[in-house]
Write a structure and sequence with these properties.
about 150 residues; alpha/beta; five-stranded mixed beta sheet; globular; 5 strands; about 20% strand
C-alpha cells in the first residue's frame, strides 16, 4: 500500500527521550494510531483532531495489532537514536539543517514551508528537529514514515 507520513510539533524540553515517550503516551491515549484510526490525520491540531481514545491495553498491544503496517504514528518510534534505524528518531545534523533551511536554528515556519526532506526518510524511521522562536528552542518537530 505504501508508507504514510506522520509528523508532530510539541513543546520543547531538553530531554528528547522524555518528550518522545510523553508524545507516544499522548497519542496512544487519544487513540490516534492504526488500527484504532486506520489513517490518522496530520498535523494533530489539539482538540479538533479525531480522538477516539485508546483501543488497546498498551502501546505494545497496539503495535502488535497494527501488524506490518505499523501504527502510522509516533507509536512506532520506540527510542531516540544517533544514526538512522528502525523504530528510532534521530536528529538532523547542523550541516543538514544549514543545507535545508540556511540556519542551524530553523523556525516552525521554515519547516512547514520546506518539508521536502521528508522524502529522504526510510520506512519505519524518524527524525527530530529542535524548532526555534526568537533564537530560543520552542518546539520539537518529529516526523517519519510508517512501515507500510
Amino acid at each position: 500500500m505504501g508508507a504514510h507520513l506522520w509528523f508532530y510539533f510539541v513543546p520543547y524540553e531538553a530531554d528528547i527521550s522524555r518528550v518522545l515517550q510523553a508524545l507516544r503516551q499522548r497519542e496512544f491515549q487519544a487513540g490516534r494510531y492504526n488500527p484504532a484510526v486506520p489513517f490518522p490525520e496530520f498535523p494533530v491540531e489539539g482538540l479538533s483532531s479525531p480522538s477516539p481514545g485508546a483501543q488497546h491495553a498498551s502501546i505494545e498491544e497496539a503495535l502488535e495489532a497494527s501488524e506490518a503496517d505499523g501504527t502510522r504514528s509516533i507509536l512506532d518510534m520506540e527510542r531516540v537514536g544517533e544514526s538512522p534505524d528502525y523504530g528510532a528518531v534521530v536528529p538532523f545534523s547542523a550541516e543538514r539543517l544549514l543545507e535545508l533551511f540556511g540556519t542551524a536554528q530553523p523556525t516552525r515556519e521554515m519547516i512547514e514551508q520546506n518539508m521536502d526532506f521528508i522524502e529522504d526518510l526510510e520506512r519505519g524511521q524518524g527524525i527530530y528537529v529542535i524548532v526555534f522562536k526568537d533564537q530560543k528552542p520552542s518546539e520539537i518537530f518529529f516526523a517519519g514514515y510508517s512501515y507500510d
